[in-house]
Amino acid sequence: MKKNYLTFLGLMTTVLSVQAQDPTVNAPTPPYASSLVQSIFSDTYTNAVTVSQFNESTGRAQLNGLAIPNPGAGNPNLNIAGNQILKYTFTNSTGYYTPILLATTINASSDRYLHIDIYTPNGGMPKFKIIDYGPDGVSTAPNSEVVLTPTSFTQGAWNSYDFLITSVANKSNVWKILIEGTGLFDYYVDNVYFHASTTLPVALTDFVVKAFSNSVVLNWKTASEEKFNGFEVEHRTDNADFKAINGAFVSGGKNTYSYTHNNPANGNNYYRLKMVDQDGTFEYSDIQAVQFDLAGADVKIQCYPNPVTDQLNIRFNAHTVGEAIISLQDLQGRTISQTKVNATSGDNQSVMNTSSLNKGVYLVSISLNGKVLDSQKIVK
Fold it and tell me: Is the pTM of the predicted complex or chain greater than 0.85?
């Protein structure tokens, strides 16, 4: 990479002496049109900014074997088939990042992703930070720091990360990008850039998950779909990587979707949607998390679709059997309808006809054995 603009900080948790091996192949060639890219370090693109320091001179890491802030003619970057790569050797094991510091801030407010390619022959999964200095460009509060954590990692291979940053509030004055390693190891970096690519003709507008007694229910909506194939539901726990749930592929074309994950793990469960186009290209949704507690509350209610038209699906779970009453009330407390259900221990489902219901906001509540346990607002 030639003209660049960022900073990386390295975190080492253990002190190991490992013989590192440089990568022998380059990272994947960036696929995006240059009009969609703001490059910081990449030989594929003309870089949008000048990097002040590729390595903050605070003793956290060596750059290409030397404790210097920038590579130079006397200390060239690692070069594979004419392509330049940055090599960081972390030298501080007390828990630091090491940064790429830009000479001027970069405005990434219109970008959707931060892309970074990283390789390590001996280290663990890295983390990254985006630091925004605010309109004044001064490295004092109020600054904004956002940590980006990969969901997968392979040692001894290039890892290409596209971090979705649409939910990052402050990114119009980005001055640093930082990397956190996992010890006194070598990390190789290439193709650092922001980009505004939208790889799929699908717009996801809503994605929520909710825990029940023996399952987790995922509901999501799309605003538009064109040449879209469908969704693959992926799941992980605190100590595992994301994996596709066996058989959890939901075909597109409906705009409103639901999937039930039976028997999730106790504790934290994380979900994301792999949105697959008809040509095989894909994009990931944001990650949704839910805590599944085997000793949870007696009843939790879920109503969908919401807003509703003609038919409302009502799902609830109970830890005991008994008579459940599903009540529909307006916001003035007037009861519109009541339905009795013989609840079983576990998941229960019911359907309510709402075709004659006037437009407005209503409250659906569940009582079990005479005790009101949960409620949810719906919109018609």
Answer: no
